Amino acid sequence: AQSVTQLDSHVSVSEGTPVLLRCNYSSSYSPSLFWYVQHPNKGLQLLLKYTSAATLVKGINGFEAEFKKSETSFHLTKPSAHMSDAAEYFCVVVRGATNKLIFGTGTLLAVQP
Amino acid sequence: EAGVAQSPRYKIIEKRQSVAFWCNPISGHATLYWYQQILGQGPKLLIQFQNNGVVDDSQLPKDRFSAERLKGVDSTLKIQPAKLEDSAVYLCASSPGTGNSGTQYFGPGTRLLVL
How would you write the pLDDT of chain A (113 residues) with one tens digit per residue? Predict the structure, then answer.
């Protein structure tokens, strides 16, 4: 069965420095993978998605992720963190034909001034 | 375009009481989802509707939870009786269909505290 593992529960960076949020996946076939972001008291928002096209996926707000089959990873990166990036980030795999989302446990990103 | 609406935003009840949550999906979206998000965890799917039919309710604790989407638009999720472990954020989401696009649109959630 498909699953995702987020390797860090908390990440803290300084404003202007790079962001790396790590996600490994487990799937018996080529998965569809996503990153969602959840700001405090707001709904979850799709950041980006990989659906077997280009392995480097660009999303909103300068985020991108690279699908690496050899490493079973789908890490989220951003060259320069902004204060507004502080939020919780979820790596997600889609299971089955019914669009069922399987969420990781989340990574809380803190951005220090 | 209006987003997914949920009410109430917050609810505090005592254990063994009942509670109901309401969701209005994005207009025209055939698929509606209810998730439970316990503090420190990712959201977990409780039930998925396609129009007014249930597609997946395998994770719904049916002895106390129920959900309906009678006219294929709005939906309600009910808990009766509530337990302490039901304290969580209940998220509603919708999507145009069940195709493998993974894009779901989430509401702001209802935060439930059971005392």
Answer: 789 999 999 999 999 999 999 999 998 777 889 999 999 878 899 999 998 778 899 999 999 999 999 999 999 999 999 999 999 999 999 887 667 889 999 999 999 99
Task: Identify how many contiguous H helices and E strands chain B contains and give both numbers.
Answer: 0, 11
Partners of residue A10 in chain B, C-beta under 8 Å: none
The pair of structure tokens assigned to B91 is 């998220």
Using a CB-CB cut-off of 8 Å, the residues of chain A touching B55 are 98
Q: Are A61 and A47 in contact (CB under 8 A)?
A: yes
Strands B31-37 and B88-95: antiparallel
Asked whether the beta carbons of residue B31 and residue A46 sit closer than 8 angstroms, the reply is no
- For β-strands B10-13 and B110-114, DSSP reports them as parallel
CA distance B110 to B36: 10
Of B110, B114, B111, nearest in space to B83 by CA: B114
Question: What Å distances lie between residue A71 and A2, A12, B57, CA to CA?
Answer: 15, 24, 33
Q: Which of B56, B97, B99 sits opposite A100 (nearest CB)?
A: B56
CA A38 to CA A75: how far, in whole Å? Answer: 17
pLDDT tens for B19-63 read 999 999 999 999 999 999 999 899 999 999 998 899 999 999 999
